[in-house]
Amino acid sequence: MTTVPARSAARTLITVAPTGAETAKADVPALPTTPEELVETAVSCEAAGAALIHIHVRDADHEPTLDPVLLREAVAAVREATDLVVQLSTGGAVTDPLDRRLTVLDADPDSCSLTCGTTNFGDGVFLNPWGFMVDLYRLAQEREVVPEFELFELGHVHALRRLIDECGLPYGGRVHVDFVMGVPGSMPGTPQTLMAALALLPPEVTSWSATGIGRTHLPIAAAALSAGGHLRVGMEDNLVYAKGRPVSHNRELVARAAELATILQRPPMSTTEARELLAVKDRRPAAL
Ligand code: KMH
Ligand code: ZN
User: 132 in ligand 1 pocket by Cβ < 6 Å?
Assistant: First the structure.
């Protein structure tokens, strides 16, 4: 008999990852790449049920960038317009150098992604050597930024164990992980793999979410909800709403996730509940 994990939640944290670093604006005009589109997407996805936004910033040419000024402006703009937990990607694009990826924390996000190891990433390699993971983790602790541990591989789950042993708990004391499944060359986006990964989670993990890339998006969402987990959706991970029907706005993916979660009696959690779940520091202007 399969047991429901103790960390199974009554409500669902919905994360939206609206942009990513891989898709070209020219190929997908609906991808939010400008500051105005990012804010409009954030507002609209919050209204549809999202409580956390995972942001990759694009420059004026719609190319992925780690420009510190643009990152700061993006964080401030989303914080001003919404109550979403603001998470910046430290993964960037596969071409981004490690030292530049560390500077993402200078933009003072609530949360940052922290991938627990190197992985195949389509035709590329997404580099996350041990020393970089430790540096990023210690910097996040120092800056009081809550990391979201991104796990693309079963080996990453074990590397998280090593990271907690060596560096202790994150700022706030909660450990939230996100399984990124179905990246070509990395762990497959199947319910069986999700169950295997869950079985390996260290006991310190207090919450987990999952996202499936491409056609694994919906099955992984259903499997994660069934197993008590949270959801990440968005055009970073999936550009197809249904067979032959492209996603026209991130809101559609969030709304569908919210509906699915509600049907399964685990409705979306509010941004206030998400802040408590993740124990993020309150950086909203009114709180300062
Ligand atoms: N763009 C990928 C190479 C993250 O945001 O931290 C890495 C990624 C993970 O998207
Ligand atoms: Zn990302």
Answer: no
